[in-house]
Design a protein that fits this description.
Blueprint lengths: L6 H36 L2 H19 L7 H7 L1 E2 L8 E5 L6 E8 L1 E3 L5 E3 L5 E5 L3 E2 L6
């Protein structure tokens, strides 16, 4: 006796395969357009202006660090980043965002009586200020 498959058993897997094939072909074309519309709707010009002004404030804060300022004056405005650092160069973080950093170089003294080792002092003078940059904060 010959058995024939019922139409439901054949059509159901065929329908699932066809829908999957259509979604696989057309979804990559449609989804990026939908995502762009969602992102554009979420950001208004006022939001972008606020962000731009905030970044400009952060850059101006770092530009306020001048050569011949003391270490004490710099530490009063900014926090130290974690991790290793030397007496000559230290990373400082913006107080509002720990991802924005700047490297500040100091002129330090050496102790001739202690194998000429660097001496840390709050009166060390700034010799150079690097450009601000983005980086994950170091946590100690």
């Amino acid at each position: 006796m010959i058995r024939f498959l019922r139409p439901k058993k054949i059509l159901r897997p065929l329908a699932v395969f066809t829908i999957g094939l259509i979604c696989g072909i057309f979804a990559p074309m449609i989804l990026p357009q939908l995502r762009c519309k969602e992102i554009k709707a979420a950001q208004t010009p006022a939001d972008n202006l606020d962000k731009t002004q905030w970044i400009e404030k952060c850059i101006k804060d770092f530009q306020s660090i001048k050569v011949d300022m003391t270490r004490r004056e710099v530490e009063a405005k900014f926090h130290h980043d974690g991790g290793f650092y030397s007496k000559a160069c230290m990373r400082f973080l913006d107080p509002d965002c720990n991802f924005i950093k700047v490297d500040v170089y100091f002129d330090f003294r050496r102790n001739p009586n202690d194998q000429n080792r660097a001496v840390f002092s709050d009166d060390d003078k700034v010799t150079k200020v690097g450009p601000p940059y983005l980086e994950y904060p170091c946590c100690d």
